[in-house]
# Entry
Amino acid sequence: MNDIWNDSDASPIRILVIDDEPRIREACSMVLEDCGYEVTLAPDGLKGLNLVQESYFDIVLLDLMMPELSGLDVLANIRECYPDTVVIVITGYATVEHSVDAMKRGAFDFIPKPFSPEQLRVTVSKAIEFNRALRDISETRSRLRTLVNRLSEGVLCINRQHRVVLANPTFLRMAASTTLAPWGLDYREVIGFEPLKELVHEATGGFEGDGDAIEETVRELALCPGEEAEEAVVLVRVIPFRNRPGRLVGAIVVLNDITALKHMDRMKSDFVSMVSHELRSPMNSVLMQLQVILEGLAGDLTPKQREILERAYEKIGNLAQMTTELLDLATIESGLIVSERSLLDMAAIIRDQVEFHRPRAESESICLIAEIPESLPPIRANRRNMEEVLSNLLTNAIKYSPNGGVVTVSAEAAGDYFALRVRDTGLGMNEEETKKIFQRFYRVRNQDTRSIQGTGLGLAIVQKIVESHQGKIAVESIPQKGSTFTVWLPLEKG
# Structure
């Protein structure tokens, strides 16, 4: 199949024959013109070089043995100045030494004198295919270079020796590079932004080995363009690049400016925070008034009135809880909890939370078990946030477990991490639901869960808290068998 970009067939193939024997020149001209090629003739090497300098030729048929300027000298000049031109050597001696020497110097093929028209046609045909392949490669590189240079994302390609293979202008600008010609340089000489340089070094540290340990790295970095300018944020992807056998040959670094997205996200969080704050006070006031009425302090209620007011109290209570959780989420996303961390005894916090939730679990005939070692290594975290993580996980486990179910809380030190697990024997989820469970406002909705109240924000808050502490959370679940939520938090080093 022809390359859809290739328009080389639109113009005839141009061939130059350089030979000091008139009969060879005429014979070549007659055979090649019959094939539809455009043929030009030169009686010696000097005139041949002049023609090559004046006009482009796809193929040059070159006699090795010529007076004044030898074919090898002409070949060297053509290869140096016009590397895309394919050279076929004509040798009257047919010696292996001359042929090998010419091939080493860049000749595509050779034809021994005397040669038949069919030999000439076949050799030239092979050269044309080779010429087209070279042209396709050159044009593809040119198109790719133009495409990459026009990208709004920064792109850097490096090989296993840390040398720059490709870098577009956007990358050089975003990486604070001081060079405009980075090709062949060590990327550490090209990247001027130190945090980015360190990230690339960290992500490509396995270059010195077999490369199997190299995985894609994704991280956000804040750029500081100046005191008066707003801080820019870039999403950095370091992607290992492998050849067809799977061997690591380098890495691609992609920079995506997400400053505008971050700004919009911050505006959205500020708006949600403002609305939630403005709604919470009046809703709490309404709840207090309803509670006064339900307790009979404003007079007796009929059964129907009580039923209606209790429903209203429940719905407004859910709204009040949602506004509180939205405010918590906005606080976490703003980063305000970072400065409120201290060394925590997680074993004591877990036991306190288990005892706090035990009455509710027992009221629903659920067995709540704590499998906690006597002592656990301390972690540096925000106490209120850790209590919130445990409270949300325990509340969900109890809420989604049927009567007679079991909820187990366990913890251990696993390498450099503290691992917390909350396992239940409840309703469980399918694979599609587990992928969405940490999304805001997402709730599993089916026949078994429609009567369970909730806002769909609890697990989103848990995930944000865990990630803000450089940890991670995962869930394993089987429908009608139960779920296990596992939280990993880094241990205090030293």
